Amino acid sequence: MPPLDELEVHGLFSGDVDVATLCERLRQTGVREEQIHVLSPIPLSSRASDCIGSVPFYRITIGAGIVGIGVGIFFAAGTAVMYPLMTGGKPIVAAPVVGIISYETMMLVAIVMTFLAMLVRIKRTNSTIRSRDVRVDDGRVAVTVRVTMLGSIAGAVGDAMEQAGAIEVQSSIIPSGRESVSPSIRRAASLLLPLLMAGFPSGCSQDMQEQPSYQAQEVPRRHSPPGSVPRESRRLLPMPVERNEPMEEAGPRLFHINCVHCHGEQGEGDGPVAPFLKERPANLKTEKVRAMSVEAIYRAVTDGRDMMPSFKGELSAGERLEIARFVASLSRPSVAHQGGEEDR
Amino acid sequence: MATRDSVWNEMPAINRDLLAPLLTISARYLALVAGLATLVAAGAGVWLYQIETGIGQTNMHPPVFWSSYIASFVYWIGVSHSGTFISGVLRLTKAEWRRPITRIAELMTIISVMIAALCVFFHLGRVWRWYYLLPYPNQRQIWPDFRSPLMWDATAIFTYATASTIYLYLPLIPDFALARDRVGGWRQRLYALLCLGWKGSQQEWETLNTAIRIVTPLIVMVMVSVHSIVGWDFGMSLVPGWHTSIIAPYFVVGAVHSGLGMVAIGLYVVRRTYRLEGYIRSEHFDKLGKLLVVTTLTLAYLYFADQLTVWYGKKPDEMAILHSLVAGPYAVPFWTMIVLIYVGPLVLLTAPSFRAWPAGMMLMGVGINVGMYVERALIIVPPLTHPRLTYQWSDYFPAWSELVILAGALAMAVLLYVLLAKFVPLISIWEEKEGRLHAASR
Predict the structure, then answer these.
(1) Structural Rg of chain B based on CA atoms
(2) Which of B158, B166, B433 sits opposite A42 (nearest CB)?
């Protein structure tokens, strides 16, 4: 059976109408409480204890506040763990900081969610009322009652309104199934879409691509730049390297300049920077390093390893080799004098 | 004494009076908008010039790394406390006299938060890279350090700006509905969108009142935290003159002081321009004056406690700053500030006849705001020009480019207000009606 048409009875009253008595009369005609809407230019009571469904409004605020605290903890504590950086002698996760950020995010989420809950609630309430009387804002009170056409009590409702002193009573038919939610969806979309679009540009920049450099998928260059060497040559030790100073001095000197701040004076991975690093630098006296050939150590110095950066740019091939030999000598004192040729 | 009946009957007149500013545009209004827009354009032009040629255009130099832009930021954030304080605290305490003032003050809040944020951008070098400051997973593998007070500040101001926009919007919904039915043209569609299809049923009122009552105490708490954190931007550093635990409450009270002064100016201008003497009465100026006496005394007390501690301790680093203020190169602005924000308000606002004089209250507001602006500059500049090592001692006065940009920012604040006055009813219409009905019922 198709849904029945409905009838909206609309009464206009002067501002000082006794709303409680009027509603009582309307209920006597058989109208349910939720069918009556009293429209006024100001709130007629100062009641403010609204519920959404069976959930009191303030619980939404409290729940959102708790979520907000979680957001604050994630940003202030969670990301600090992911990006550990020592500054000013403060711990990586500092309680006062987490407290301050969580306070702000708690307030933010609580206020925004309260606002959104109110939006939904207001939209839901007023979508059941068909028309708004412009005269209400001029100091009138309007009462609308929505009843079904079948076995209608509309006449009784109209009479009750007139007895209560209505200035005007009108009824209008609301055809069933005509009301669509699409205007409200369209409105919501027209609000949300610009917001979403405003968020996009912030994540768009890819800095490397803005450089005047060769791009991915670009046609290969015809010629290598002057001074370039074949890729594979990196693996080869540049032998023989001319030594300007005796090995006993060059290796330790370069090691002292380039390596000790992480690996420590003795190469035991306890340099002054070590406590601030995410991963501990390698102890160069362990079995693992002893097992490495000079070439392997040379490769590590050249290309970097785990957290350790490449030293290609900082040091010449000869200098890297001297360092590799010195590092090897730390765990194997004999290597220093042999020159490492047999390791190749 | 109005009866309830007469209040209901005067509602059409209230609608007419309070919607009138939205419906008329005079030649003087257009001239004002044009003048302000010219100033804004001048400021924007100089800002572009500063972006093009670099932050070296300012007179900032080592060791003065913070200066007029940051002073303006602190000042505008302070002014933004007008709305939240007047509206929030007075709504919480159910002060009836708040009704014609809240909207005027809340609009100031939104606009001055925007201007304050703009001042941070003036201060940024390579400002087109501003998004580096946002926490988002990025290709550079860097992340903001939340242990920096500047990050607390960014978080707090984002919260404050969002919350105060919501707070302005909530009581506007019924007024937008009213305007939808009575203002035609392009604005009607916008009002229809913004009023959420408001019908005025009791359920809607109840929902709105619930939301307002929940949000109000929260926004007051956010307000206190925001200026505290702005204070901590300074207080957390070890710079002599900044490193004091009293700085957070001192900043909050100072902010309310300048905010109230700004509201006095706004009230006077709105009342005079739109002939709203029946709504903004001398009683409102009187109450505002009393509040200003409270903030004057509180601010003076905090400032005295702070400077007394410095003076008695006689630490050379801090004494150098105090000397430079009281009898040194900053003596003229310092004593001007003392007169404008402490002595003047205390002497004049304790006289009831002065408080009831709207033009006088407006001038007092101007004086307090000039004084508070100088005060912000004096918090920032002297400690930086007097670092611990005396060979670095230096001096600072804003460059012409800084002055033009900041004048443009001020013009933009006024311009936004003037433009919004044609879109938003400057007095909350339904709250005014409700207030009159309450008064008649008593």
Answers:
(1) 23
(2) B433
This model of the complex carries an ipTM of: 0.92
B11, B131, B201, best to mutate vs chain A, most A CBs in 10 Å = B201
Q: Is the peptide bond before A240 cis (omega within 30 degrees of 0)?
A: yes
Is there a domain that residue A221 lies in? no
Task: Please indicate, yes or no, if residue A5 is contained in any of the structural domains.
Answer: yes
Q: State the total domains in chain A.
A: 3
More confident residue, A50 or B161: B161
- Quote the domain boundaries for residue A330: 233-343
Residue of A nearest to B178 (CA): A137
Select from A16, A90, A134 the Cβ nearest to the Cβ of B5.
Answer: A16
Mean residue pLDDT across chain A? 78
Give the position of tokens 């290309």: A303
Chain A CA closest to residue B182: A134
The span from the first CA to the last CA of chain A, in angstroms, equals 91
- Same domain, yes or no: A62 and A108: yes
Alpha carbon separation from B295 to B222, B250, B251 (Å, rounded): 19, 10, 12
Q: Whose CA is closest to B171, among B87, B285, B279?
A: B87
> Looking at the domain that runs over B4-25+59-128+144-398+422-441, which CATH code has it been given?
1.20.1630.10
Q: What is the mean pLDDT of residues B410-434?
A: 92
Whole-angstrom distance, CA of residue B358 vs CA of residue B360: 5
Collapsing DSSP to helix, strand or coil, B68 comes out as helix
Q: Select from A42, A46, A125 the Cβ nearest to the Cβ of B207.
A: A125
**Inter-residue contact B94 to B281 (CB < 8 Å):** no
Q: Looking at the complex, does the CB of residue B52 fall below 8 Å from at least one CB of chain A?
A: no
Handedness of CA A84, A86, A89, A94 (dihedral sign): negative
Shortest Cα distance from B349 to chain A (angstroms)?
A: 35
User: Which pLDDT does position B37 carry in this prediction?
Assistant: 97
